[in-house]
Amino acid sequence: EEFLATVAEKSHGAALRGDYEHADSHYVVKQHWQAYTEAEHDLWRALYQRQMSLLPGRACDEFIDALHKMNAADGIPEFEKTSRELFAATGWTIIAVPGLIPELTFFEHLANRRFPVTVWLRKPEEFNYIVEPDVFHDFFGHVPMLFNPVFADYMQLYGKGGLKAMQLGGLEQLARLYWYTVEFGLINTPQGLRIYGAGILSSGGEVEYCLTPGTSSRHIHLDIQRCLNTLYKIDTYQETYFVINSFQELFDGTAADFAPYYEKLKQGQALPANTLLPDETELLV
Ligand code: PHE
Ligand code: FE
Q1: Which of 147, 153, 166, 265 has its CB surrounded by the most CB atoms within 10 Å?
Q2: What residues does 10 pair with on adjacent strands?
Q3: Is the CB of residue 247 below 6 angstroms from any atom belonging to ligand 1?
Q4: Architecture of the structural domain at 7-267
């Protein structure tokens, strides 16, 4: 039941938590790993253990396998260590940032295969719910998926697509795709639906909720234009989960030029988050 800001929230301009004073012009900071307290490492361990009690049979294998290789269970990880392993696997690196960063900078990092990870950890009273993404959401939720070559390529192209969308006035539309895939995406597997979205994977409550049949949320196959045109909820569980059949399908489905999509969608009305169109089938039964 965690709210996770992403690209879309970066423009709202609310006061941000985090130390931006020491950031460079690309919003990069030092992680200062030595400065984390033992209490913060304990809190990380508790968050990690709680998620691991929920994720088997719910998170996709790609996430679980990479997470195990990352050895991140025993306290807040050192970014540089994982970054070296990640670079060897897919050519991505992890950079430390003070918190939310401007869209342009965010897209530039992604386009260059750099994933920004917030350095600070939530407070104990935020165990179940946090307003801004912290190191647990960013590192635990996002980094494992970057070990998957196809997903890693998708993220880079998303960054390039973001820079393009800024030129075309399509940011609102493109942000919905990030939300419904990178943050709240589900994937269909022979064993059933599994989670790959970081917003769910780092959340205490939504892991179970999103895979429970019979809730008021729908689980429908991802259609790119439909997704670009669908509003989302930032302070409740999602009312729609878009399901992919493979990461390759996601990659191939987003290869088209989005310029005509933006043109068309900007003319019309976006769909409410709880829309179910007549030709859509509920996939979680
Ligand atoms: N193909 C998209 C475009 O032309 C860019 C994109 C790629 C967006 C992958 C999202 C993910 O704008
Ligand atoms: Fe996120």
Answers
A1: 147
A2: none
A3: no
A4: Orthogonal Bundle (1.10)
